[in-house]
Amino acid sequence: MRTEQVALDAMYTRLEQMRREALQRREDARFSSDGTPAGRFNRDALQHRYSQELAALNAAEDKLCFGRLDRDPAALAAFGPGAGGSAGSGSASAPESAPSPADEADAQRVIDEHSAEATIHIGRMGLTDGTAARRQILIDWRAPASAPFYTATALEPQGVIRRRHLQTRRRQVTGVADEYLQGDPDAQPAGGGHDDLGAAGNSALLEALNAPRTGRMQDIIATIQSEQDKIIRADRSGVLVVQGGPGTGKTVVALHRAAYLLYTHRERLGGHGVLVLGPNRTFLEYIGQVLPSLGESSVVLATIGSLYPGVEATDPDTPRAAELKGRAMMAGVVENAVLALQAMPRRTKLIEYDRGTLRLEPSLLAKAQRRAWGSRLPHNRARAVFVKAVLDGLAQQVAGRPGVKQAPEAEQQPPDLDGIRTDLAQDPDVMGALAALWPALTPQRVIGELFSDPRRLAFAAPTLSAAQRDALLRPAGSPWTVPDVPLLDEAAELLGELGAADRAAAQRRARRREDLQFAQESLDALDSAAAGQEDSGIGFTVGMLSAEDLAELHEDNPFDLSTADRAAADREWTYGHVIVDEAQELSAMAWRMVMRRVPAKSMTLVGDIAQTSDPAGATAWGKALRGFVGDRWRLAELTVNYRTPGEIMDVAARVLAKIVPELSPPESVRRTGSRPWAQRVDAAELGAAAGRAAAAELAEHDEGQLAVLVPDELGADVLAAVQAAVPGAGTDAGPHHRVSVLTVRQAKGLEFDAVVLVEPATMVQQSKRGWGDLYVALTRATQRLGIVHHRALPLQLDDLLDRR
Ligand SMILES: Nc1ncnc2c1ncn2[C@@H]1O[C@H](COP(=O)(O)OP(=O)(O)OP(=O)(O)O)[C@@H](O)[C@H]1O
Q1: Which domains does the chain have, with CATH numbers?
Q2: CA spacing 20 to 30 A to 493: which of 23, 147, 314, 450?
Q3: pTM for the whole structure
Q4: Is 246 one of the annotated binding-site residues?
Q5: Under DSSP, is residue 506 helix (H, G, I), strand (E, B) or coil?
Q6: Residue 248 counted as an annotated binding residue
Q7: 252-283 tens-digit pLDDT
Q8: Is 672 annotated for ligand binding?
Q9: What are the Cα distances from residue 632, in Å, to 115, 528, 617, 625?
Q10: 612: Cβ below 6 Å to ligand 1?
């Protein structure tokens, strides 16, 4: 252990040194501007880069090093320095504080050289010793040389003699646990004692799994399992579908895969970024710390509801409307809705013009319309083609009109059509009439009117029944729902960008809003700095500045320079890789939107067909993906449940058999000895019983989180009763409450130490995916499950411990 402490001390010393250097670089950058706009831009870019670098170094503090491999030098030659059964493609380096391209090759050389050494330490990031020789003292967990730490076995040792797990608290080594994969332990190379802590990897894993939940997902770099490692390091290209039951680590694996891909393909992906899509905001907050803790920031976390810039939809819609809006045929409905706004009048329209009355005849308009369609441009760009064609026709009208006075010398010459057209184009009445015929459209207007105007909907969706259309109608100005967002995106695709002038105005407005918000935040920060707190880093007097002043300063001084910021704000941004979590929930229309973001189709889709709850979600992967990638996707499966103890999974497995009989339940990695229980109470007592169970849980356990999971219709009553028993119980999950009352939709993807499930029979009946909801609810607990019910329990739950 002493040897390991010496090694760890050297790593932290080096980390400190790198932090000081990065801090200094950031300080130097602060004063680097020569005062010109370009100088200020460069200063901000540098400061931004060094801040990110610092954030990555700070994130490396916890569990900087967690493993060591002693390798057989003879076997190394055979396996190569980057020996690791499942190492993915691409060249990996061990970037130390974001090296510039010039020294990246150097870093590569160093790691390769070092990887040929017999003993390597594995940790959160790569570190050299800081000398000119650049001796590698720590290897990034993502480097090829680290792969055997996760995948070597006694059967396939991959050149590893000994694998050592290091336990650390803060900067102290608190234990080492060794596994010998080949040879005689007594004959192993020296360097650290052999503390017998049992099956080394397993004890670290079980410790992580049994730890109380905090409301935030943690990284798993020290305990990645072999089947998970294969997925994390799988080739970047193409579509990889990861199917796995609840708790098999799909989410955590997907996040580690994002970190791995960014590390391995930094040059390619750094600039394009990686998009991670999750089911809702709470979920994104739950997983939000994992990638920063892995030192990665070029990742955009989004939901389907937030993927269209400028709209943040969170409302779900009614199940009927959600199912209809998710259907692939909606693409045609949106197209029809745009076409309806290009419809031409059947009667001639007259416009008063200073050289006489102009006639907008149906034949002229139809010709202009055909020309605009023939251009194959999206609506807003085809508008210029339409307008030009009509103005041409009108100019002819004006030129050919008897009585239009011409100068005597001009009478011999052909009429000046260009001049007439220019005149017409400046006439507000003429241009107003044309703008009404082929208006500049926003997606918000098209979709808003589609669902609030029965005539428009009837025109655009002739194949839907009257009852179906009724289900879609809503008052004008209603807030956007999540299923609206793919339709907005679809409309944006058909409409194209607004014209330059419209776009510039919209951008100015949006920018101004953001700047004002930024300015207000900066002023708040400065206020607190003035009150004696830490310097916020903005070096000018603020006493006299308003948010508006500061916003103006910011206008030509952009701070939003990161790939992630730019990508999130740009609807047409294309990502280097897209990861979709809970991918089974995506509707056909949502898939269309996501696929547009990744034309190269480099994607990882993780999910569980058995957990589908969205009415428009998938029931089979092949069916969901066929329209986009045919059968060019590959499947990987995760089979071990790390979350749900065996006692709970036994119950959940019977529910799974009801949903998808052919799917095998994941095997739980542990049993806890705690049997799930059920308590039958009067209907009026459901909330109070759940409240008592929650209060008892808090009394018995000092740490950890509990969720009361309710059918949608019982939510408000149960919440009131639980809050009476446990003041402070919340309606959202997260680190702020120890007890939350949630619907299944809200609990999707999350986990809790204990779950109290209310009235399963109602949950099953609440939608056509009710059994899936019950399955999700049953599999959220890491330790304890209880059920309170009044109605008879579904048969699948009949052997629970009866608690009266
Ligand atoms: N190798 C591992 N080491 C430590 N913890 C792990 C490991 N794999 C998974 N876990 C933990 O198991 C729990 C479940 O993981 P995760 O949420 O990723 O599963 P999931 O398959 O996405 O589940 P669900 O589909 O039910 O939402 C998490 O707490 C995760 O950190």
Answers
A1: 1-76+111-183+200-207 (no CATH), 224-303+571-640 (3.40.50.300), 646-803 (3.40.50.300)
A2: 314
A3: 0.81
A4: yes
A5: helix
A6: yes
A7: 999 999 999 999 988 888 778 899 999 988 88
A8: no
A9: 36, 55, 21, 9
A10: no
